[in-house]
Specification:
A hairpin with a 2-residue loop joins strand 7 and strand 8. The protein starts with a strand and ends in a 13-residue tail after the last strand. The mean pLDDT is about 95. By secondary structure, it is an alpha/beta fold. The chain contains 15 helices and 19 strands. Among the domains are: about 110 residues, Succinate dehydrogenase/fumarate reductase flavoprotein, catalytic domain (Flavocytochrome C3, Chain A, domain 1), CATH 3.90.700; about 120 residues, Methane Monooxygenase Hydroxylase, Chain G, domain 1.
Length: about 575
């Protein structure tokens, strides 16, 4: 048995910032299924929001304006105290990251450069060219090396061990050796990212299966607002690689087959800088109504920006377009379609990152504080990850220092034996393979639980998901060895994927309104009387069991959301 004071699961921005907050005072370990520098945070491109009031034109930005934009962008489902905390901490967090060495892009006078993003009243996205996530992640990993953080690399958590309402530790699989091990800790902090692989058309890495959300859910922790799934407006056709919102922030146009800037029909004032939910629906509508190119996509046109600006501000996007579409955006427009991108919902935590289970915390995309509500603004995801990595790490550290009870070695030993027996059964014999089930689920989620939803499709999808779950009872892995067994890892991930898909679909069917990213063609209006509330799902004998939780409203009463 391996023991630490605090175990952080996930090596992205939230996990590494939590580690930086805690590992100088406590015995902290970080468990990551990949090398931390291959965490999905590295794929973020466009920027991190902060009200620096830093633009040469002197725009009058503020924490209150940033908070209001965040709440309005959330379609008023964000908890306003959490949103305000995030926006208050944005300036010191960006300054901290700069002092730690993040190579932010600069204005000519040397100040940190900021670009406009959708749904924001001011250009407040600080950026490092179009590789902002990479720059931030490398900076935080340098701090982890500096502080001597214990890192368990290429380990996959399979089970959270909870007894009497308190976490005692977890069980994890060493992917390199195939060995299962019990980890004891006074507190556990999940920072495991999103669930994009539940969808077929997604910008997310292959590791983003929702495993952390699924493991917490099966351990009895509530998950919140999973029906709210963000579809990024601009992903490269076919491959669905992200094309940053920063491309539109720098002045890119969206055009249909008539060379028309069609966003004027949907958001006359904001145009291409409307929030993501509005633009994703607008692009899809253009395609469905026959104004798409080849009835399949629209163009993101950057040509008017000029070669110098594209090379300086969007070099990564140019490289992606050239390598994966054979197009130089200096010369030709980029073909794009919306794709699943982000998880607004996640493990239900309070403003301190604490869940209903004592000693269990979560931060980043796997958590739902909630600062994004029904729709996240671009530039707020990197901010949330770092801010709540810091905040949650601080509170988890205080909990560990004040904890008086010890972990249950008996409980961990029993859990380890049960997991060993479960994995042995999976690798013993022949049966149903996981890959056809995964493919069917991902196609289903794209087709019936996507940008536009309705009762008939959601009922059908839910029925199919439950049929796939029944088929999962016969799952087997073809190779008996656990060492470097990717199929075994895929089967373990599948357990989380099917849970997450069921919660998304059942929650979307239950929420009879349209709000933010959740758009029902049979209930097109937002319904604050019935649905200005969070959805909480707990595991039940027949599937997810739902309750509701009030939204925290402080300064901004809900009103019509227009752009």
């Amino acid at each position: 048995m391996i023991q630490h004071d605090l175990i952080i699961v996930g090596g992205g921005l939230a996990g590494l910032r939590a580690a930086a907050e805690t590992c100088t005072a406590l015995d902290v370990a970080l468990i990551s299924r990949v090398h931390p520098l291959r965490s999905h945070s590295v794929a973020a491109q466009g920027g991190v929001n902060a009200s620096l009031t830093n633009h040469p034109e002197g725009q009058d930005d503020s924490v209150d304006r940033h908070t209001f934009d965040t709440v309005k962008g959330s379609d008023y489902l964000a908890d306003q105290d959490a949103a305000k905390l995030m926006c208050e901490k944005a300036l010191p967090i960006v300054c901290e990251m700069e002092h730690w060495g993040t190579p932010f892009s600069r204005f000519d006078d040397g100040r940190i450069a900021q670009r406009p993003f959708g749904g924001a009243g001011f250009p407040r996205a600080c950026f490092a060219s179009d590789r902002t996530g990479l720059a931030l992640l490398h900076t935080l990993y340098e701090q982890a090396v500096r502080f001597g953080l214990n890192v368990y690399e290429e380990w996959l958590v399979t089970r959270l061990v909870v007894e009497d309402g308190r976490v005692h530790g977890l069980i994890a699989l060493n992917a390199l050796t195939g060995q299962l091990e019990a980890f004891a800790a006074r507190a556990i902090l999940f920072a495991t990212g999103g669930y994009g692989q539940v969808y077929g058309r997604s910008t997310n890495a292959l590791i983003n299966t929702g495993s952390g959300i699924g493991i917490a859910y099966r351990a009895g922790v509530g998950v919140k607002d999973l029906e709210f799934v963000q579809f990024h407006p601009t992903t490269l056709t076919e491959s669905h690689i992200l094309i940053t919102e920063g491309a539109r922030g720098e002045g890119g146009y969206l055009v249909n087959r008539h060379s028309e800037r069609f966003m004027e029909r949907y958001a006359k004032k904001a145009m291409e800088l409307a929030p993501r939910d509005i633009i994703a629906r607008s692009i899809t509508t253009e395609i469905l109504e026959g104004r798409g190119i080849e009835n399949n996509y629209v163009y993101l046109d950057l040509r008017h920006l000029g070669a110098a600006k594209i090379k300086k501000r969007l070099p990564g996007i140019r490289q992606i377009a050239m390598e994966f579409a054979g197009i130089d955006p200096i010369e030709k427009p980029i073909p794009i379609v919306p794709g699943q991108h982000y998880s607004m919902g996640g493990i239900d935590v309070d403003i301190k990152g604490a869940s209903e289970v004592e000693g269990f915390y979560a931060a980043g995309e796997c958590a739902c504080v909630s600062v994004h509500g029904a729709n996240r603004l671009g530039g707020n995801s990197l901010l949330e990850a770092i801010v709540f990595g810091h905040v949650t790490g601080c509170h988890a550290s205080k909990y560990v220092r004040n904890a008086t009870s010890s972990t249950s070695n008996r409980m961990l030993t029993e859990a380890l034996a049960a997991e060993n027996a479960r994995l042995k059964a999976l690798t013993n014999g022949s049966g149903v393979r996981v890959y056809p089930l995964r493919q069917r689920l991902r196609e289903l989620m794209d087709q019936q639980v996507g940008i536009f939803r309705n009762e008939s499709d959601l009922h059908s999808a839910l029925q199919t998901i439950r049929e796939l779950r029944n088929q999962s009872a016969e799952l087997k892995v073809t190779r008996s060895s656990r060492q470097l067994n990717q199929e075994l890892i895929d089967v373990l991930d599948w357990e989380a994927m099917i849970d997450v898909a069921e919660i998304i679909t059942a929650g979307a069917l239950r929420r009879t309104e349209s709000r933010g990213s959740h758009y029902r063609t049979d209930y097109t209006a937002r319904d604050d009387t019935q649905w200005l509330r969070h959805t909480i799902a707990h595991v039940g004998p027949e599937g997810p069991e739902f309750t509701d939780k009030d939204v925290t409203i402080t300064d901004y009463e809900p009103r019509e959301r227009t752009y």
